[in-house]
Design goal:
The chain contains 15 helices and 23 strands. By secondary structure, the protein is α+β, with helices and mostly antiparallel strands. Bound molecules: flavin-adenine dinucleotide (FAD).
Length: 510
C-alpha cells in the first residue's frame, strides 16, 4: 500500500475544522494523513452564525448527531431570512427555504398567482409558503418524510455560535486521529523545480512538510495569496459594503426561526437568534458612512443590552482568481468573501470540501482535476454574486446615496438577463450547478417589487375559477398545517437545550 498522502491544513476557523472533519470522516483509512496548524494568538473570525440548509447534509454526511451538535453550539433552527426595508422603507418579505405553492399542470404555482394578480386579486405570495407562515408565527417542525405533502416541501438550516462549532468539529476530528499543532506560521518554502509548496515553518522552528496544502488561513490567505501570489478579483463595484461591526446582545422576546436583515442608510444590519444570546452586526460601505456612525447605529438598534463593544471587521468583496493552484487549495475566506447577506460563506466552504473529496489528487496532481475544481468553484461564486447584487440593485429606496448608487450601477449581464426574463412573463431559469434555485429568486424578485408583466401561456389551460379555488385551498392548507406546528422556542428547549451558562470563547481575530 502506498504511503498516505500528507495533507496539511493551515488554519483552524470554520473552514479549517470543517475541512479536517470531512477529510478524517470521509476518506478511507490510510489514504491521507491529515494535520492542522492554527494560531491561538491570531484567532478566528468567528462571526459565521447563520447558515443554509446544505449544512445539515454536511453534518449528516460526516456522522454528527443533530441534537448533540445543536446543544453544543447553542443552535436554533432557521427557516429563511426576513428582509426589512429592502424594497422600500416599511417593506418586509421572507426568503424561505422552500417553495411557494405546488405546481399545477406542470407549470409553477406562482404563474397562477401572477395571472390572478394581473386580474385584480391582491394577496401576499408569502401566504402560500409554509416556512414563511411558520416564521411569521415563530413555529417550527421537522419536514415530514411524505414526499408529496405540504409539510415535506421545505428545508431548514441553523443559527449557531461559530466559535463553538469550530470547537465541536475540533473534538470530532481529533477523536478520529487528526493531529493538531498550535503555532504561528512564519515562512513558506516553495520547491524550486515547480513552485509547489514544500513546507511551512512555525515560529517555534518546527518545519512541516506536506504533499497537499489546504489554505484555511482566513483573509490573510497565507499560502494562496501571499506565498503563491494568486491575485484577487475585486467585486466591490457591485457589492460596495466593505466593513462590519459585530456585537452580541442579550436575548429578548420570542426565539424566532429566521435571520433578520434590516436595510440601513449605508448597508444592512443582521439579527441572528441563538439560544444564549442574539448576534448582531452592521455591514456597511465605508464610502457612505463613518465607522463611528455605523457603530452608533448598530448599538441604537439592538433587542437587548449589548454584550461588549462592537468588533470591527474589514473585507473586500471578491475572490481569488483560482481556488486551486499547484498543490494548494484555498477554502473559506482565504479563497474569497461575499458578504453575509444570504449566509453563503459556510456553504461555499462546504462545496469546496465536497468537490475536494470528489477530486482528491494523488502525489502527482493531474491538471484535469485542478481545472474541474476551479470551474465548479467559479460557478458557485458567480451564482452567489449575482443573487447578492440583486438585493442591492432592485431597491426602491430614495433616501440615501448607497441605495441610489446600487440602483443605478451596471450589473453583470447574467443578472440583467435573469431580471428581464422574469419581468417579461415570470420565467426563472433553473441552474444546473450552484445556488440559488427558482424559489429563492422568486422570493427576492417579488419581495423587492419586481413583478411579472405577463405569465406563462400554459396557465390559460386551467379555467380561472379553478385557479382561484386552488389558491384559496392551498393558502388554507398552509395556515392549518402551521397551526399544528410547535412554538420554535419550545421545540428547541425540548430537542436541544444547551447547558445553561456555557462560557463563551473569547478568542478574537487580530
Ligand atoms: C462580518 C461577517 C459576517 C459573517 N457572517 C456569516 C454568516 O452569517 N454565515 C456564514 O456562512 N458566514 C459568515 N461569515 C463568513 C464566516 O465568518 C467565514 O466564512 C468563516 O468564519 C470561515 O473563516 P475561515 O475559517 O476561512 O477564516 P478564519 O476564521 O479567519 O480562520 C483563519 C485561521 O487561520 C489561522 N491563521 C492565520 N494566519 C496564521 C498563521 N500565520 N499561522 C498560523 N495560523 C494562522 C488562524 O489562527 C485561524 O485559525 C461572515 C464573515 C464576516 C466578515
Amino acid at each position: 500500500m502506498p504511503a498516505p498522502l500528507k495533507v496539511v491544513i493551515v488554519g483552524g476557523g470554520t473552514s479549517g475544522w470543517m475541512s479536517a472533519a470531512a477529510l478524517v470522516a470521509g476518506l478511507p483509512p490510510g489514504l491521507c494523513e491529515v494535520r492542522l496548524v492554527e494560531s491561538d494568538e491570531i484567532g478566528i473570525v468567528g462571526v459565521g452564525e447563520a447558515t443554509l440548509p446544505q449544512i445539515k447534509d454536511f453534518n449528516d454526511h460526516i456522522g454528527v448527531d443533530e441534537a448533540d451538535f445543536m446543544r453544543q453550539t447553542q443552535a436554533t433552527f432557521k427557516l429563511g431570512i426576513e428582509f426589512v426595508d429592502w424594497g422600500f422603507k416599511g417593506s418586509s418579505y421572507i426568503h424561505p427555504f422552500g417553495v411557494h405553492g405546488k405546481p399545477l399542470g406542470g407549470v409553477p404555482f406562482y404563474q397562477y398567482w401572477a395571472k390572478a394578480r394581473l386580474n385584480g386579486r391582491v394577496d401576499d405570495l408569502g401566504d402560500y409558503s409554509l416556512p414563511i407562515v411558520a416564521s411569521r408565527q415563530n413555529r417550527f417542525a421537522f419536514p415530514s418524510t411524505d414526499e408529496d405533502g405540504l409539510s415535506s416541501n421545505f428545508a431548514y438550516a441553523y443559527h449557531f455560535d461559530a466559535h463553538l462549532y469550530a470547537r465541536f468539529l475540533r473534538g470530532f476530528a481529533e477523536a478520529r486521529g487528526l493531529r493538531r499543532t498550535e503555532g504561528r506560521i512564519v515562512d513558506v518554502t516553495l520547491k524550486p523545480e515547480d513552485g509547489h509548496i514544500a513546507s511551512i515553518r512555525l515560529e517555534s522552528g518546527e518545519v512541516i512538510a506536506g504533499d497537499l496544502f489546504i489554505d484555511c488561513s482566513g483573509f490573510r490567505s497565507l499560502l494562496m495569496g501571499q506565498a503563491l501570489g494568486v491575485g484577487y478579483e475585486d467585486w466591490t463595484p457591485w457589492l460596495p459594503c466593505d466593513r462590519a461591526y459585530a456585537v452580541p446582545c442579550e436575548r429578548a422576546g420570542a426565539l424566532t426561526p429566521y435571520t433578520r436583515s434590516t436595510a440601513r442608510e449605508a448597508g444592512w444590519q443582521w439579527r441572528i437568534p441563538l439560544q444564549h444570546r442574539t448576534g448582531n452586526g452592521y455591514v456597511y460601505s465605508s464610502r457612505f458612512i463613518s465607522d463611528d456612525e455605523a457603530a452608533a447605529t448598530l448599538l441604537a438598534n439592538l433587542d437587548g443590552e449589548a454584550q461588549g463593544d462592537p468588533r470591527p471587521l474589514r473585507f473586500q468583496a471578491g475572490r481569488r482568481e483560482t481556488s486551486w493552484s499547484r498543490n494548494c487549495i484555498a477554502i473559506g475566506l482565504a479563497s474569497g468573501f461575499l458578504e453575509p447577506l444570504e449566509s453563503t460563506s459556510i456553504y461555499l466552504i462546504q462545496v469546496a470540501i465536497t468537490n475536494l473529496l470528489k477530486l482528491l489528487p494523488g502525489r502527482a496532481i493531474d491538471p484535469a482535476l485542478v481545472s474541474e475544481f476551479n470551474r465548479l468553484i467559479d460557478v458557485e461564486y458567480g451564482r452567489v454574486r449575482d443573487f447578492l447584487i440583486l438585493h442591492y440593485h432592485l431597491n426602491g429606496r430614495d433616501d440615501a446615496p448607497l441605495w441610489r448608487y446600487c440602483r443605478e450601477m451596471p450589473v453583470p449581464d447574467s443578472l440583467t438577463s435573469r431580471m428581464a426574463l422574469f419581468e417579461h412573463r415570470g420565467h426563472i431559469a433553473k441552474y444546473k450547478d450552484g445556488l440559488f434555485q427558482p424559489p429563492s429568486w422568486l422570493a427576492v424578485f417579488v419581495g423587492q417589487g419586481l413583478l411579472p408583466a405577463g405569465y406563462d401561456p400554459l396557465v390559460d389551460n386551467v379555467p380561472q375559477e379553478h385557479i382561484l379555488r386552488e389558491l384559496d385551498q392551498f393558502r388554507a392548507d398552509v395556515a392549518q398545517t402551521v397551526e399544528a406546528m410547535r412554538d420554535h422556542g419550545g421545540f428547541v428547549a425540548d430537542f436541544c437545550a444547551a447547558p445553561a451558562n456555557r462560557p463563551l470563547s473569547s478568542r478574537v481575530a487580530s
